[in-house]
Task: inverse folding
């Protein structure tokens, strides 16, 4: 389940594409469409079979998904934010620990 952008979508896609040039180009997953989002949850049967390094389609757990969707809709969630910083992080092989290597400020007054 994702929270999708209502504004700034094309700017985030452009930034994503610019980031995956130069030395990062080999890491661009061309087989997966980039959709700017915040992940809220993964509602699949047998989630333990999911591998972030080698993603594949999994069967949706419709019952838990629709329960979560109903609860989310009841919250009348309206979230707004301004992205002013990107952090370069290193993630361990088990995807359980991340370390911030460097912050990149997008707003001139934050530098």
Result:
């Amino acid at each position: 389940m994702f929270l999708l952008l209502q504004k700034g979508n094309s700017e985030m896609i452009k930034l994503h594409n610019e980031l995956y040039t130069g030395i990062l180009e080999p890491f661009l997953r061309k087989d997966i469409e980039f959709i700017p989002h915040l992940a809220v949850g993964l509602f699949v049967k047998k989630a333990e079979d999911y591998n972030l390094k080698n993603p594949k389609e999994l069967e949706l757990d419709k019952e838990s998904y629709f329960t979560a969707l109903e609860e989310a809709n009841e919250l009348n969630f309206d979230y707004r934010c301004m992205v002013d910083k990107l952090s370069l992080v290193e993630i361990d092989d088990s995807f359980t620990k991340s370390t911030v290597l460097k912050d990149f400020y997008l707003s001139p007054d934050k530098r």
